[in-house]
Amino acid sequence: MSALAFDLRNTSGFLVADAHGRVVGRVEGPMYGTSPETPDALSVRFGFLARRRRLVPADSIEQIDDGSRVIGLRVPREAIRAFL
Asked: Where do the domains of the chain lie, and which CATH numbers do they carry?
């Protein structure tokens, strides 16, 4: 678990980059799991016409840059699970 607590509620539209700096996709919205008040993960759209999605857990986020609207991950792209 990360030592820093990030507010994931207002990250819709942010770009997500993996540990190597490659773009993973764009945040579609936060996903709530264990608590209805605090999001546990982000839904990230990727692929042709953004029809596919990846589930980015909150503990894989290294930093969030509000100025450039980019979320940096500490894991490579291959470690992120795809869904739907």
From this structure: 15-83 (2.30.30)
> 3-state SS string over the chain?
CCCCCCCCCCCCCCEEECCCCCEEEEEEEEECCCCCCCCCEEEEEECHHHCEEEEEEHHHEEEEECCCCEEEECCCHHHCEEEC
Position 49 scores a pLDDT of: 73
pTM score, two decimals? 0.86
Contacts of 64 (CB under 8 A, 6+ apart): 6, 11, 14, 70, 71, 72
pLDDT tens-digit map of 26-79: 999 999 988 888 899 999 998 777 678 999 999 999 999 999 999 999 999 999
pLDDT in tens, 40-55: 999 999 877 767 899 9
